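Appendix B, Record 12. Input sequence as logged:
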Amino acid sequence: MIKLIGYFAAFVALIIGVVWLANNPGFVEFSWFNYHIKLTIGLFIVALVILITISVLFWRLVRGILGAPDAFGIFFSSRRRRKGYNALSKGIIAAGSGDVKAAHKFALVADAKLDNEPLTLLLKAQAAQLDGDKEQAHLAFKKMSEDAATKMLGLRGLFVEAQQNDDSATAKLVAIEAIAEDPHSKWALNGLFDLQTAEGDWGGALNSLLMVARLGGVTNAEVKRKRAVLLTADAMSIENDNAERALELALEARNNAAELVPASLLAARLLLAKGSVRKAHKILEKCWRLAPHPDLGALFAKVKDGEKDKAWLKRVQNFAPKAGIGNLAVEAQGKIEAAVLVARVAILQENWAVAREVLEASVADDPSARVCTIMAKIEQGELGNKGHVAEWLARAQNAAADPMWLADGHIAAEWAPVSAVTGELDAYEWKLPEHNLAQVEADLAANILLKHQVNETLLIEAQEKTIVEAEAAVKELADEKIVVLEKLESAVSSEAHKNTEIALLEAEVEASAVEEAADEVVLDVKEDVPSLTEKVLGKRVTTPYSTKPAVETKLDGAQIAVVRRPDDPGLRDNDTV
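Logged structural output:
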């Protein structure tokens, strides 16, 4: 619109000028040497315009001739760059589609046509990676990291390369350099955070988490949860060397995530060691409501100095029903944990009626292996009915598994801040496994062997059904069982009977799991292993009613042979006891 107004104004001015000249005629005279020229004013103006136009055209012609070499150079340079960028574009597409040959070809063309183009280094690096040439890829990323325009891109490539080579030290240095270059780089901050958690640098990880939180992209709840896990891990690492500082960290972790069981357990344990019983119990009770875990109940159930049995049981009975209250996600499991806790304390006091009563609801549904084992203990202690004991232990073998610490399919005996499989922070969850109990027991047995530094190759070779390796594997499992049972017997005879018995019941289950793993190895070498088990684990019993080997379980000094039958899992007259 403005241009249109301008054109119109110019046209009007021209008309006005023409009219003015028409109304004011005159002449222009030139006298030069012997020439005398007389022109009207209008003709003079026309001649002047023509002269100026010719002069301008002549100047452009002269300038074009003088600048022809540069013009030709610019033309060919532009054409060259056009071809280079075209090759660069096609090369990046080829690299993205996995065409190694085409990527190399276009990388060479782009490198030849384009001078000092950072993106050609990226294409060369991608082509080298596709071709498996790590050295060339490294050189390309290194050059990129030395150019200000592509430094962050080059550092990212070097970081990924170091991770692929499991070179955490180099990866950490690259991430630190990237953060120094760009403090807002999320990939560098997240990468450094992951490396710090993997190597147990909890203090450094806390600082990195703070920087990540400032950038945004993570919720406040996520930051608090991760912070709680890191603080708990840090507290656990210094618990034996600096209990006071560990307590401070554990309490801070609990304040960030009250549902984090390891944080509450550690804080309560350290408080109890200081004599702060009331504060410790308050922490345990709150976590018990949010995430009922058997270790919380076991720690709360520890006997106070001078506490009578009746007061002890009453205190536990008041505490137990609070498990999972108001939290629908864990309320069902909370009821089971509450019943198990009261039952165990009642068993320690030989109050069999209370123990049986609290477990009735759990038994009525689908009892877990732990509930079945405790019921066997009740039958043994109250009635001494070996048939019923055998029945419950047989049911325990096929019962559903209890919750355990799981992360990425890995079962851990204890909570850990990072996954043993992926190294991810806060990966372990206390939940029911998806696979069957037999697999769970096998995994737990494997964990026990690993914990005591037993060579994994024994089990692997035993699965190949070689007798020598099977004997070694069975012996290792038997030794593990002996260690567990020796701890059990020594602890039972100690003065701290009440405080240790809850842990001892778990030890019995652990011993059963170890022996079950031995059974699996034995079944893999059917003909030869019976003689081995007779030497290592003792004589086994079978009857016409079962094609599976009997399971021997030691309770209070009694050796019981359990035979599984579909109609009556108890003992027959001809069974060995």
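The chain is about 70% helix and 5% strand.
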